[in-house]
Amino acid sequence: MLDMKVLRADPQRVADALKVKNYQFDVAAFTHLEERRKTLQAQTEQLQNERNTKSKSIGQAKAQGEDIQPLLAAVGDLGERLDTTKKEFAQVQDDLQALVMGIPNLPHESVPLGQDDSDNQQLAVWGTPRVFDFDVLDHVDLTADSGLDFETAAKVTGSRFVVMHGQVARLHRALIQFMLHKHTQTHGYNEVYVPYIANADSFRGTGQLPKFAQDQFKLEHEQELYLVPTAEVPVTNIYRGEILAEAELPVKHVCHTPCFRSEAGSYGRDTRGMLRQHQFEKVELVQLVHPATSWDVLDSLTGHAEAILQDLELPYRSVVLCGGDLGFGAAKTIDLEVWVPGQDTYREVSSCTNFLDFQARRLQARYRSAQGDIELLHTLNGSGLAIGRTLIALLENYQQADGSVSVPDALRPFADDLAQIKP
RNA sequence: GGAGAGGUGUCCGAGUGGCUUAAGGAGCACGCCUGGAAAGCGUGUAUAGGUUAAUCGCCUAUCGAGGGUUCGAAUCCCUCUCUCUCCGCCA
């Protein structure tokens, strides 16, 4: 959520900034609602004050044994007027809230202009894609006999799911262990385990609701519950409504969860293989930091994700997302894209984002400064990394002419010393 | 699943319709006192919003959440939620 003070002070400036994100902010509608809000709030509070004062005097009169009938009469239709005004005020508040909750975060000034991912700007390239002296297989063909089993998953559940067998399942598990190990032991993150189901308040807190309900798996339950689309939701919401001491900062969490996404509206895209699944594993990095540090933290957090790709010796590049490709709550996002030989291109395995105080304001996640002031935190997160896509990259980059796949050194200790996957 | 007890500020804890403007205590901060400390004494110690150029101030809301009754609700009623105890079931 944006700062209401900023919105009120200069809505036109907000509208201009949001054009970078292809978002049309209706300044007139906002200003109109805000005017009504102001009037109605003043009226409501004035009536409440009147009621409180008069009620108190009734109490005092009663305590002194005086006749309270005239006082009761003086209250008259105050209650009714208050009721009407209150309802009107609540309605305007709801409308205004709905409007403001739907406004995306302002992009940082360094975010490049652009419509979609083709306008993203490359920042750096690491490693060189391997030159193969045989015909390259993609992960589907490579594991058709022994590893990834899409037919069975389709029988058990439906499309966009996978069953993994044997050594591929082991490698998949090893990737999770390896990443958790690296982030906790080398990068100083605290591991957390969290629920894979979260309530609507949590989804609103991190910005998945109200706007993106169609992307979520909603449970049939008496309470409004959803499967988590990323660990970002449960982990960041640990701090919803909390006030941390400045000395506790920065909070750094690493968390492995499955992620559930309905992928509504992506029917034709990435239908082959396990690039885009309804369920995938992810190791997520989440930080809650002092506002002054968040831009530095974005760089270091991205570096932590990059370290995984470097240890696995997978070629990748980093790109900064353009305005049109930037997420709802993001001020700036750096994507890491790993080389996928089967597609002869780079594909996203990590998305590292600085939300500034956008999520913190919805969450009311704050800290108390040394001076005793209470201020909003800044939140950041990034994949470190998406497991399924890393596995794809691993299989395809490390494939051999005979159809086997060698396991990179860094991963072997976590895979019971598995050195090679046989076809 | 059944029965019961609860949820009050940073913490403990009082509070069954109006001197509650949430008592009292602990903790913390500052001041006085002291050679220094402890003790003692004093002052302060929530959040969100409104008003204001801003501070002070003033106003409104918040006692798990949401409704309701009432001139007036922490207190009474309803729904939900979480915690604890006992029974049952269970990995």
Short description:
The protein has helices at 4-9, 11-19, 27-63, 69-75, 78-101, 139-142, 150-156, 166-185, 200-206, 232-236, 294-311, 358-363, 387-397, and strands spanning 121-126, 148-149, 163-164, 190-191, 197-199, 225-227, 243-245, 251-260, 279-289, 316-320, 332-340, 345-354, 366-368, 374-376, 378-386, 405-406, 420-421. The protein is an alpha+beta fold and 423 residues long. The protein binds one RNA strand of 91 nucleotides through helix 3 and helix 4.
Topology overview:
Blueprint (H helix, E strand, L loop, with lengths): L3 H6 L1 H9 L7 H37 L5 H7 L2 H24 L19 E6 L12 H4 L5 E2 H7 L6 E2 L1 H20 L4 E2 L5 E3 H7 L18 E3 L4 H5 L6 E3 L5 E10 L18 E11 L4 H18 L4 E5 L11 E9 L4 E10 L3 H6 L2 E3 L5 E3 L1 E9 H11 L7 E2 L13 E2 L2
Parallel strand pairs: 4-8, 7-13
Antiparallel strand pairs: 1-10, 2-3, 5-6, 8-9, 9-15, 10-11, 11-12, 12-15, 13-14, 16-17
Helix pairs in contact: 3-4, 3-5, 8-13
This protein binds one RNA strand of 91 nucleotides through helix 3 and helix 4.
Could you characterize what this model shows?
By secondary structure, this protein is an alpha+beta fold. 38% of the residues lie in helices and 20% in strands. It contains 13 helices and 17 strands. It has helices spanning 4-9, 11-19, 27-63, 69-75, 78-101, 139-142, 150-156, 166-185, 200-206, 232-236, 294-311, 358-363, 387-397, and strands at residues 121-126, 148-149, 163-164, 190-191, 197-199, 225-227, 243-245, 251-260, 279-289, 316-320, 332-340, 345-354, 366-368, 374-376, 378-386, 405-406, 420-421. An eight-stranded mixed beta sheet has the order 1-10-11-12-15-9-8-4. A three-stranded mixed beta sheet has the order 7-13-14, with no helix packed on it. A two-stranded antiparallel ribbon has the order 2-3. Strand 11 and strand 12 (345-354) form a beta hairpin. The structure holds one RNA strand of 91 nucleotides.
